[in-house]
Specification:
Blueprint (H helix, E strand, L loop, with lengths): L1 H37 L7 E13 L1 H5 L6 E16 L6 E12 L8 E12 L11 E4 L7 E3 L17 E5 L4 E13 L2 E14 H5 L5 E5 H4 L12 E17 L4 E14 L7 E10 L1 H18 L2 E4 L2 E4 H33 L12 H10 L1
Antiparallel strand pairs: 1-2, 1-13, 2-3, 3-4, 4-5, 5-6, 7-8, 8-9, 9-11, 10-11, 11-12, 12-13, 14-15
Helix pairs in contact: 1-6
Pfam family, one: PorA
InterPro entries: PorA (IPR021424)
Protein name: DUF3068 domain-containing protein
C-alpha cells in the first residue's frame, strides 16, 4: 500500500510542477499575445470634443471702410469636433471622419459660424498613424468636393502605449506635422496622463495650401499702413497669411486617448513671417470640463479593456499576475508534495528491511559460524 500511495504522490507532485510551469509560461506570453489583439481602436469608436474660450476676429466690413481698429476683441468662441469610424475598415485600419465647426458663442445658433470642415483619414488601429499609402481628404465647402491631403502624423488620438517621447502631430491648418514634445506626467481626476506640447509657425499658408485667398494685394492705405492722403497710399503691397499655434495635449497613455487639450493660435497677414502687418484672428480654446470628464471615462474603459483588468474596488488585478500567483502556488504545492513523498518512501523502505535494520554481522548464526572457524 505504501508503494501505491508513494507513486500517486509522486505523480501528483509532477502534475503540479508541470501545471506551475505552464501557468508561468502563459503569464509571460499572455501580454505578448493579447496586447496586439486588444490594442486596436474599436470600430464603434465615437467622440464629441467641445472647446470653449475667446479670441479676436478681423471684421472685413470695418476693414473695407478704412476703420483704424477693424477687430472685435474678447469674442466668445466654441468649437465642436465629432469623430466617428466610417467605412472602409479592416482588422488593421479604420477610417476616422471628423466634422468640425468653430462658432461665435455670442451669436444666434447657426448664424455665428466662423469656419467648418469635414476631415477623413485612414489610420492604423494600433499606432494611430496614417495607414500605408492611403490618402486622406478635407472638405471645407458643401458645394465643393473634398480635396485629397496626405498625412504623416497622429491627429485625433495617440498610439496605444503612448511613450514619454515626442510624437509627430498633424496640423490641418498648416497642412504639415511637427513634433509634440513630451512635457511630463501628471494626474487628472486620479488618472495618470502624459502632457505633450506642440509649437508651430509662423507657417506660410499660401505655400501650404496654394489658396489665392492667403496671398492678397492691396494698397498701402487699404492695409492700414499709411493714411489715404499719403503720397504712396495707392501703392500695391502683397501680403501673405501666416499661422502660429501652441497646442497642449494630455493623453491617457495605455489607450492613447486625448483627454484634455488647449489651443492658442493666431493668423496674420505680413510681408514676411516676422512682419505682423495685419492681424486676422487669434484664439485661446480648451476642452470644456464636461468634455474632459467624458474623455476620461472613455480612456478608463479602454484602458481596462486593454489591460484585461478585473475590477476589485479601487484595485485592478491583471490576468497575467493572477496566473503568476497561481503558478507559484502550484509550484510550491508540487515541491512540498514531492519532498513529503520522498521522506515517506524513505521511512517505508526502512520498515520493510528483512534484517530489521540491524547489522548482519551481529546475527548469532554468523557469530557461531565465525567462532567455529576460529
Amino acid at each position: 500500500m505504501a508503494g501505491r500511495s508513494g507513486g500517486a504522490a509522486r505523480l501528483s507532485a509532477s502534475l503540479l510542477v508541470g501545471l506551475a510551469v505552464f501557468l508561468l509560461v502563459v503569464a509571460a506570453l499572455l501580454p505578448l499575445y493579447t496586447a496586439p489583439k486588444l490594442e486596436r481602436l474599436p470600430l464603434g469608436h465615437e467622440s464629441t470634443r467641445i472647446m470653449e474660450g475667446s479670441g479676436t476676429l478681423l471684421d472685413a466690413a470695418l476693414l473695407a471702410k478704412g476703420d483704424e481698429a477693424p477687430w472685435e476683441e474678447d469674442v466668445a468662441l466654441r468649437s465642436q469636433t465629432r469623430v466617428t469610424v466610417e467605412d472602409p475598415v479592416s482588422s488593421e485600419t479604420a477610417t476616422l471622419q471628423a466634422g468640425h465647426a468653430l462658432m461665435r458663442a455670442d451669436s444666434t445658433p447657426g448664424r455665428g459660424l466662423v469656419s467648418a470642415h469635414i476631415d477623413r483619414v485612414a489610420i492604423d488601429r494600433h499606432d494611430a498613424m496614417p495607414a500605408g499609402d492611403t490618402m486622406a481628404s478635407l472638405q471645407v465647402d458643401r458645394e465643393s468636393p473634398a480635396v485629397q491631403l496626405p498625412r504623416d502624423g497622429v491627429q485625433y488620438r495617440f498610439p496605444y502605449g503612448a511613450a514619454p517621447e515626442a510624437y509627430p502631430v498633424y496640423d490641418l491648418t498648416a497642412r504639415a506635422s511637427s513634433e509634440a514634445e513630451f512635457v511630463g506626467d501628471t494626474e487628472l481626476d486620479g488618472v495618470t496622463v502624459r502632457h505633450y506640447r506642440q509649437s508651430l509657425g509662423p507657417v506660410d499658408l499660401f505655400r501650404a495650401t496654394r489658396d489665392q485667398a492667403n496671398r492678397v494685394g492691396m494698397t498701402r492705405s487699404g492695409w492700414g499702413l499709411v493714411d489715404e492722403s499719403a503720397a504712396d497710399a495707392g501703392e500695391i503691397v502683397f501680403m501673405t497669411r501666416y499661422y502660429t499655434v501652441q497646442r497642449d495635449l494630455w493623453v491617457e497613455p495605455v489607450s492613447g486617448t486625448i483627454v484634455d487639450a488647449r489651443e492658442q493660435a493666431s493668423q496674420f497677414f505680413g510681408t514676411g513671417p516676422e512682419d505682423q502687418g495685419l492681424p486676422v484672428s487669434e484664439h485661446d480654446l480648451a476642452f470644456t470640463s464636461a468634455t474632459v470628464a467624458t474623455q476620461l471615462d472613455a480612456a478608463r474603459s479602454e484602458r481596462d479593456r486593454v489591460q484585461l483588468a478585473i475590477g476589485a474596488g479601487p484595485v485592478s488585478i491583471h490576468a497575467s499576475w493572477i496566473l503568476v500567483v497561481l503558478g507559484l502556488a502550484a509550484l510550491a504545492a508540487g515541491l512540498a508534495l514531492g519532498i513529503r513523498s520522498s521522506r515517506t518512501e524513505d521511512v517505508a523502505g526502512a520498515g520493510d528491511d528483512p534484517s530489521g535494520g540491524t547489522d548482519p554481522d551481529d546475527d548469532p548464526a554468523v557469530m557461531l559460524y565465525s567462532g567455529a572457524r576460529g
